[in-house]
Amino acid sequence: MTGNDRASEKPIPSPDADSAQLWRGLRDGVLLLQHCDKCRHVQYYQQGMCRQCGAEDIRHRPACGRGKVHSFSVVHRAPGPAFKDDVPYAVLLVDLEEGPRMISTFTGGPPEDVTFDLNVTLVVEISGDGTALPRFRRS
Questions:
Q1: What is the pLDDT of residue 1?
Q2: What is the pLDDT of residues 108-120, one digit of tens each?
Q3: pTM listed for this prediction
Q4: CA 50: distance to chain centroid?
Q5: Rounded to the nearest 5°, which phi and psi values hold at 3?
Q6: What is the 3 state secondary structure string of the chain?
Q7: 109-121 burial by CB neighbour count: b if 16+ within 10 A, else e?
Q8: What's the rounded mean pLDDT across residues 60-81?
Q9: Which residues have CB under 8 Å from 51's CB, separation 6+?
């Protein structure tokens, strides 16, 4: 495959040892957050230890899937050929109810529907290659 062929394909996640459980959970329709047994910190994106206290006693627990838009941007110019059919779309920074913030995209309506403090709910969408992607829709 040449570089030009790759430019027309959307990037897909590359799970590693820390994030593999997150991607398996998404395939099952669940966003897994890491909870530290020592300091009770909740984190997203997955790591081998707590970012708050450094402990390795962390457990995956399902998120409730609810959050609020902290910030957003509407993309009108595709970042590459693979995204030309998607514009315009909204990229969200969501405050999850459990505490962490997460970047994702909006689905289920035009990007003009997005506002600050909009209540959103997680939906897992399966891409053409079978990858489960976390997205958010209006609650």
A1: 46
A2: 999 999 999 999 9
A3: 0.90
A4: 19
A5: -60, -35
A6: CCHHHHHCCCCCCCCCCCCHHHHHHHHCCCCEEEEECCCCCEECCCCCCCCCCCCCCEEEEECCCEEEEEEEEEECCCCCHHHCCCCCEEEEEEEECCCCEEEEEECCCCHHHCCCCCEEEEEEEECCCCCEEEEEEEC
A7: eebeebeeebebe
A8: 97
A9: 41, 43
Rg (CA), the chain: 16
Residue 69 and residue 116 in contact, taking contact as beta carbons nearer than 8 Å? yes
Confidence class for position 5, pLDDT limits 50, 70, 90: low
The CATH number of 64-139 is 2.40.50.840
Q: Report the pLDDT value the prediction gives residue 4, as an integer from 0 to 100.
A: 54
- CATH code 2.40.50.840 region(s) in the chain: 64-139
Cα–Cα distance for residue pair 91/103, rounded to 1 Å: 7
